[in-house]
Amino acid sequence: MVLEKEVPMTADILSSIYDVGLTDCLDAMALLSPFAVGASIKERHKEPLQVYALTSRTYCPGAIAVSPFDLLVADAREVVTKVARAAGTTATKHLRSVSPVISKCLGCVLRQLIAETGSIYICGATSAVSNDVVECYSPRTGESMVLPETCIPRQSCAFASADGRCYVIGGDKPPNCRLKRSCQTPIEYFEPLAERWEEGCPVRAAFTHSATAAGGGCLYLLGGLSDDGALNQVLQLDLAHGIWEKAEPMLLARFECAATFTRGRLFAVGGANAKGEAEAAFEQYDPTARSWSQMPPMGCPRFGCAAAAMGGRVYVIGGSNYGVCLADAECFDLDTGRWCTLPMMHTPRHRCGAAAAAGGIFVFGGTSGEKDLASVDRFDPDTGLWEASTSMISPRARCVAVAVPS
Q1: How far, in Å, are 164, 365, 393 from residue 374 at the CA level?
Q2: Is 153 inside a domain boundary?
Q3: Do 188 and 132 contact (CB within 8 A), yes or no?
Q4: Secondary structure of 264-299 as H, E, C letters
Q5: Amino acid 112: pLDDT
Q6: Is 304 exposed, middle or buried (0-12, 13-18, 19+ CB in 10 A)?
Q7: Is residue 1 scored above 50 in pLDDT?
Q8: Is residue 1 a part of any domain in this protein?
Q9: How far apart are CA 296 and CA 243, in angstroms?
Q10: Contact present, 396 and 124 (Cβ < 8 Å)
Q11: Nearest residue to 70 (alpha-carbon basis) of 129, 23, 11, 123
C-alpha cells in the first residue's frame, strides 16, 4: 500500500534526480525496471501500485512505466537505496546536496553504501612538491573524489586504515612546513562520514620513509629513516586508548619497505638497508608472542614497493632495484609457504601504492623513472591478469593507498 505521506518525498527525490541531471543517477534509474522496484512492495501489500512519471509529473495506476525514467512509487528509502547502489557512492553524495529532504533520506543509505562497497584512499606527492590532497577512489566504478585537505602537506608519508578511519603519519620535511621544525612525527586521521581531518597522538621521535599496517586493534609503524640512518624500530598505537608503545624491532633495519596485516600476523617485505641497497627480506610478526620470524625471501630485492593481502596471499608490487623501476610483481602463498611470480604490470612503478578491494589488487601512481604516474592497474587473482583501471585525478610519484571498508 502506498501511503500519502510517502508520495511527496519519493516524488521529490526522483524529480530532483531528473531536474539536476546527475548522469550516474539517471543512468541508474534507467537500469532499474519499475517491475523490479515494485515487485517486493506489491507482493508484500497485495495492493495496486502507482507509477510516478517524472517527465509529466503525474501519477498513474497500474504497473506500466510511461518513460524509462518512471519508477513505481514505493517506500522512499527503498527507491533511493536502489538508485544509490546502482549509481555509486560519489553520485549519492552529490545527490545528498540537492535538498535537506533528500539529505535526510540519504543519510542512512549513504552509510550503508560506504559499508557495502568500501573505498580506496590515496595520498602522496609529486617528485618535487608536497601534497595535502587526498583522493577517495571507488574500486567499483573507478570514480575519484577529492577529500578535504590534510592539516599538513606531506610526501613520503605512511598511510593506514583502521576502524573505518584513515591515518596519515609523518613524511618528508617540505619547505615552509612545521614538519621541518618538529622533533616528533605528526599524525592525523580522517573520518569518512564526518568528512574532516583530526590531529592524532604524535610519535615522540622524528623519522620518515616508514611503512605502516593495521590489525588486531593496533596500528603499526615499521622501519624508516632518521638522522642516524635506517631503522629497525616497530611502534604500535593502541587504537582503543590512543597510546603509542614500542614493539619488538624487526630483524633487519630498513626504510621504504612495505607492510600488510593478514591472518592475525604483521608482514614486512623489501626495503633499503643502511647502504641504500634493495633487500629481498620478508619477515613475520606475531603480536601474541611479540616476536619476529624470518620468512622465505622474495625472488627480487626491491624498495619503494607496495604490498597488499588478499585470499591468504601477500602481494608485493613494483619498487626499484639498482636504480631500475620495476614492473614485476610476486605473491607469497601463506598456505604453501612459497613465492610465485606474477605477470608484469603495464607500467614500471616505483614508490607506488596498493590496496586490496572489490576482489582485486589495485596499484596506484608512483614513478616510471621518466615521469610521475596517475594511472591505475588492477590485478585479478582469479584470471591472473592485469587490467588498466580509471586513472587518478593527479599524478603521484610518492603514492600510498589504503582500502577503507565499513
Answers
A1: 25, 5, 7
A2: yes
A3: no
A4: CEEEEECCECCCCCECCCEEEEECCCCEEEEECCCC
A5: 59
A6: buried
A7: no
A8: no
A9: 33
A10: yes
A11: 11
For residues 110 and 228, membership in a common domain is answered with no
Find the range with the poorest average confidence among 1-5, 84-88, 107-111, 287-291.
1-5
Residue with cell 622465505: 296
Pair 111, 124 in one domain: no
Domain boundary among 84, 115, 146: 115
Q: Beta strand 135-137 with 144-146: parallel, antiparallel or unpaired?
A: antiparallel
Asked whether residue 233 is domain-assigned, the answer is: yes
Over residues 270-293, the pLDDT tens digits come to 999 999 999 999 999 999 999 999
Report CA-CA distances (Å) from 97 to 129, 143, 270: 33, 18, 45
Shared domain check, 249 and 109: no
Query: Considering the chain, what percentage of its residues have pLDDT values greater than 70?
Result: 66
256 burial level (CB within 10 Å; 0-12, 13-18, 19+): buried
What residues have CB less than 8 Å from 140, skipping those under 6 apart? 88, 117, 358
Per the CB < 8 A criterion, the answer to whether 329 and 342 are in contact is yes
Asked whether residue 153 falls in the same domain as residue 288, the answer is: yes
| Cβ neighbours for 179, distance < 8 A, ≥ 6 positions apart | 152, 154, 170, 171, 172, 173, 186
- As a residue count, the chain comes to 406
Q: Are residues 106 and 153 in the same domain?
A: no
Distance between CA atoms of 33 and 23, rounded to whole angstroms?
17
Sign of the dihedral through C-alpha 13, 14, 16, 22: positive
Domain boundary among the residues 92, 115, 138 is at 115
The runs of H, that is alpha helices, within 34-124 are 34-45, 76-87, 89-96, 100-117
Q: Are residues 102 and 137 in the same domain?
A: no
Overall number of domains in the chain:
2
The verdict on residue 222 lying in a domain is yes
The range of the structural domain enclosing residue 218 comes to 119-404
- Max distance between CA atoms of the chain, in angstroms, equals 77
- The answer to whether 119 and 113 have CB atoms below 8 angstroms apart is no
Same structural domain, 87 and 131: no
